[in-house]
Design goal:
61% of the residues lie in helices and 8% in strands. The protein is α+β, with helices and mostly antiparallel strands. It has two domains: 73 residues, Glutaredoxin (3-Layer(aba) Sandwich); 130 residues, Up-down Bundle (Glutathione S-transferase Yfyf (Class Pi), Chain A, domain 2), CATH 1.20.1050.10. Strands 2-1-3-4 form a four-stranded mixed β-sheet, covered by helices on one side. The longest helix is centred in the middle third of the chain and has 27 residues. Bound molecules: S-Hydroxy-Glutathione. S-Hydroxy-Glutathione (GS8) binds next to helix 3.
Length: 219
């Protein structure tokens, strides 16, 4: 019997985008179910009772939650092609470390840039540039964080790269001036079909994020 793969999705979510990219890399067919964030479905509440958040991957009726855990699950289950994590235990640990860094730093500092203004936003911008420079150092002269091939850290970071346009407009700066190699990496990833077809349009994302910032400020 064929696998049943359902993704509880939200088009704007960088976390859900990670899952879509991993599934596309593996060539897995799936059904995307868009969740209404203001009216969560009974299925979402049942499948992710702890965090009640998307993404959730439901594989043959069984849920897997948290995007980085889902991507690792996908890599283990569909291990016939496009390995995302390296085989070597130390390299695997390093890849997990940097993906965790993306969650702990890039994600939270980007959110702070979006939600703040003035001095707090300037501080968040400088923090973000510092974090991006660290990532650029980790990339070195390799085409991908996975070395010659697109891997786990690439999947973890590229949805945030897609939000650079919004971040640049908010902070009135150009990331390419600070981290040219990282921006070149982003362009390289975008050339992959698995990535380009999974990411939301940068301008649509900008309109959505600016719209929700205005709604938040009006409250
Ligand atoms: C984050 C998921 C998340 O924030 C992961 O999967 O990696 N650590 C998790 N999901 C958001 C949508 S994206 O902004 C979400 O579902 N928010 C609704 C809520 O928190 O109620």
């Amino acid at each position: 019997m064929a696998d049943e793969v359902i993704l509880l999705d939200f088009w704007v979510s960088p976390f859900a985008t990670r899952v879509k990219i991993a599934l596309a890399e593996k060539g897995v067919e799936y059904e995307s179910r868009e969740e209404d964030q203001s009216n969560k479905s009974p299925l979402l509440l049942k499948m992710n009772p702890v965090h009640k958040q998307v993404p959730v991957l439901i594989h043959n009726g069984k849920p897997v939650c948290e995007s980085l855990i889902i991507v690792q699950y996908i890599d283990e289950v569909w291990n016939h092609k496009s390995p995302l994590l390296p085989c070597d235990p130390h390299q695997r640990a390093q890849a997990r470390f940097w993906a965790d860094f993306v969650d702990k730093k890039i994600c939270s500092v980007s959110k702070l840039m979006w939600s703040s203004t003035g001095e707090a936003q300037e501080a968040a911008k400088n923090d973000l540039i510092g974090c991006l420079k660290l990532l650029e150092g980790e990339l070195g002269d390799e085409p991908y964080f996975g070395g010659d091939t697109f891997g786990f850290v690439d999947v973890a970071l590229i949805p945030f790269y897609n939000a650079f346009y919004t971040i640049e407009q908010l902070g009135n700066f150009r990331i390419v001036a600070e981290c040219p190699k990282l921006v070149a990496w982003g362009h390289r990833c975008m050339e992959k079909e698995s990535v380009s077809k999974s990411l939301p349009d940068q301008h649509k994302l900008y309109d959505f994020l600016l719209g929700s910032k205005k709604k938040l400020e009006a409250k």
